[in-house]
């Protein structure tokens, strides 16, 4: 069984990648590659939704930063959905990077920012 | 003897062939045919085709005092006669001689349904080279007919020139008439036997070859096929997301190849729906819809359960299947489930779920009715017997062995197939001592083990997830240290005392300063999650000791 899954949705100018499961050093790189490859060049924004992620470690946090760099080099914007109290949010807090990552509470909130 | 099976017509003889007239009015000596009459003995037909033909040929050879005797069976698909058995000219069979229908000696007997006598092979159009090579001089052959259908040709041969008379023909026709139904029965029997073998093969190929080590839980399973017909029993054990375990069992109504094939479809469909994490009741509802959508009417009972090893919660749903049994601590009991119809029974079947909590060391056992249904014995009585037999068992394997020993008859075979699958919620040790390969893929398994251990200690969910996060980061460091080409390992020891947990992660690699922000974040996480952290690094390896107070 795969530790994590990614489901994509195409919405006008944004691509939504909804992650679920657990993200650690065993799968972070392949998830990053998969998302980067799946995001078309014409998309203005990628929304990564971590609402259903049960576990996110430092490799997972690194994935978010790398993804941001990947997209920036293509002139695309990364938007992250992490609700307060979610496991992913706890990880960001414990790693002390909450202030450096701009996140949204909900997918709708992320969409509105387009 | 019925000669109406044979249709005799005036046929123009070809070179060297003599088409014989009906032999019905020739009286055959009783001594000559006594053994031939026994060829329709039903016991003969149950010996299987090979043995039956062997017996038949020997009797015909003796009755007619000939040198060779052979049977060619008609293969409808290729429209050819295939040499199937022979005495005296065994090569004919070994070389798989095939004669097109309508051509040559045997082909013409078959196509025209006539008896043919060849006085001298040299002057006849014989297709089969082996007959010539073996020095056969004279031949006599008759068609084998069952209920108006031609099934083959029986022919005899002589090494010396011999004039087969009408009396010989009458004997051969008696043999043919007596043998033909036997051949057909034996052929049918062989075909059924073949189907049985195929069904067993299919059944076996569809069941799990070996039980995967799912979530590190002790499991066991048995499948015993019925003695005469394969049934549609199945079991399955699979891993689900978040380290949970799926356990399925089922029984397709019916027997044979179709039931075995249907079983394979249901097993696959259930696994696929289960992976979508619908939960037991919804999974059975989807499976029920799948069964309803099948072109042929099908019905099956099934039970599906999901075990969360972290919390020991077992959620079960059943579609008309027998209730599982819980075994542990010298006791065994039936888990009562809400009644529900089998899959495919009603257009809109709905299923309910029940949750039970498995105690430490407790095992849940699912089984099919083949285990407990016996003629003239009540079902409850059988289940009581089952419970009494397994209550003292300590492991899933022992439960399976005791159940089979107590309920499966030693002789006479099983009337129905039996499937058993057992999963134990094993004891969580007071302290963890893990020796793990330095492979990122072990991290997920480690976290599961740690969560179970913390759950057992009564640590609250939030604290547990913070400890898990910290230990994971320390282990990720250990895995990164293992940069040598040789397979490396690391150790995790965890213990609890005086309201705190102490976890030690040690490896034999040199400590390297965190490279880049990523590893730096890992250390930040460890520091933020634990109360006390110490890192000792030496030439021989690195040891990270972490402590965290727990509220119970």
Mean pLDDT of chain B: 84
What is the mean pLDDT of chain A? 92
Rounded to an integer, what's the Rg of chain B over CA atoms?
Answer: 36 Å
What kind of sheet is the major sheet of chain B?
7 strands, antiparallel
Described by strand count, sense and barrel closure, the largest sheet of chain A is: 5 strands, mixed
Query: What fraction of residues of chain A sit in β-strands?
Result: 25-35%
**Distance from first to last alpha carbon of chain B:** 93 Å
Biggest interface, which chains?
Answer: A-B, 26 and 29 residues
- Rg of chain A over CA atoms, rounded to whole Å, is 13 Å
Helix content of chain B: 25-40%
In quaternary terms, these chains amount to heterodimer
Q: Helical region count of chain B?
A: 15
- Contiguous helical run count of chain A: 4
Query: Which bin fits the share of residues in helices of chain A?
Result: 25-40%
């Amino acid at each position: 069984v795969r530790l994590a899954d990614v489901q994509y949705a195409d919405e006008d100018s944004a691509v939504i990648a909804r992650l679920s499961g657990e993200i650690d050093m065993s799968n972070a790189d392949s998830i990053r590659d998969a998302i980067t490859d799946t995001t078309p060049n014409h998309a203005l924004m990628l929304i990564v939704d971590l609402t259903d992620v049960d576990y996110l470690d430092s490799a997972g946090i690194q994935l978010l930063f790398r993804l941001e760099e990947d997209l920036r080099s293509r002139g695309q914007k990364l938007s992250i959905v992490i609700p307060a109290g979610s496991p992913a949010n706890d990880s960001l807090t414990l790693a002390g990077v909450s202030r450096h990552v701009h996140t949204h509470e909900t997918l709708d909130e992320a969409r509105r920012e387009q | 003897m019925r000669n109406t099976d044979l249709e005799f017509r005036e046929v123009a003889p070809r070179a060297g062939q003599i088409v014989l007239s009906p032999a019905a009015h020739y009286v055959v000596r009783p001594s000559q045919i006594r053994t031939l009459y026994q060829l329709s003995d039903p016991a003969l037909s149950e010996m299987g085709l090979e043995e039956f033909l062997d017996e038949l040929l020997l009797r015909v050879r003796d009755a007619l005092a000939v040198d060779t005797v052979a049977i060619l069976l008609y293969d409808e698909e290729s429209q050819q006669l295939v040499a199937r058995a022979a005495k005296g000219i065994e090569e004919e069979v070994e070389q798989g001689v095939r004669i097109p229908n309508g051509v040559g000696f045997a082909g013409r007997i078959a196509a025209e349904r006539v008896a043919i006598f060849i006085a001298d092979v040299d002057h006849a159009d014989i297709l089969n080279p082996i007959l010539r090579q073996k020095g056969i001089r004279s031949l006599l052959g008759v068609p084998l007919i069952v209920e108006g259908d031609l099934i083959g040709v029986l022919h005899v041969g002589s090494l010396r020139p011999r004039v087969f008379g009408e009396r010989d023909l009458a004997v051969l026709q008696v043999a043919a008439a007596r043998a033909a139904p036997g051949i057909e029965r034996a052929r049918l029997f062989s075909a059924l036997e073949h189907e049985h073998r195929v069904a067993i093969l299919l059944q076996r190929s569809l069941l799990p070859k070996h039980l995967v080590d799912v979530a590190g839980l002790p499991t066991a399973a048995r499948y015993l096929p019925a003695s005469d017909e394969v049934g549609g029993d199945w079991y399955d054990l699979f891993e689900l997301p978040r380290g949970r375990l799926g356990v399925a069992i089922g029984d397709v109504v019916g027997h044979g190849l179709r039931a075995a094939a249907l079983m394979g479809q249901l097993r696959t469909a259930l696994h696929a729906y289960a992976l979508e994490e619908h939960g037991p009741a919804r999974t059975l509802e989807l499976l029920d819809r799948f069964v309803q959508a099948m072109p042929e009417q099908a019905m099956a009972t099934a039970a599906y359960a999901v075990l969360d090893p972290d919390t020991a919660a077992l959620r079960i749903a059943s579609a008309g299947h027998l209730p599982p049994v819980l075994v542990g601590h010298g006791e065994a009991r039936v888990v009562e489930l809400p009644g529900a119809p089998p899959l495919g029974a009603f257009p809109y079947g709905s299923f309910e779920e029940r949750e039970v909590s498995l105690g430490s060391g407790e095992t849940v056992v699912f089984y099919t009715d083949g285990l407990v249904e016996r003629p003239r014995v009540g079902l409850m009585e059988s289940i009581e017997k089952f419970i009494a037999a397994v209550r003292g068992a300590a492991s899933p394997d022992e439960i399976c062995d005791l159940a089979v020993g107590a309920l499966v008859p030693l002789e006479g075979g099983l009337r129905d197939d039996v499937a058993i699958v057992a999963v134990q919620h094993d004891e969580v040790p007071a302290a963890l001592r893990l020796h793990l390969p330095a492979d990122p893929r072990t991290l997920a398994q480690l976290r599961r083990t740690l969560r179970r251990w913390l759950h057992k200690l009564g640590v609250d969910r939030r604290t547990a997830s913070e400890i898990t996060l910290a230990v994971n980061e320390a282990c990720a460091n250990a895995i990164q240290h293992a940069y040598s080409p040789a397979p490396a390992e690391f150790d995790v020891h965890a213990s609890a005392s005086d309201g705190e947990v102490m976890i030690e992660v040690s490896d034999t690699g040199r400590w390297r300063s965190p490279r880049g922000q990523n590893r730096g974040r890992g250390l930040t996480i460890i520091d933020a999650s634990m109360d006390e952290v110490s890192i000792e690094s030496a030439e021989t390896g690195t040891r990270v000791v972490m402590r965290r107070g727990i509220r119970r």
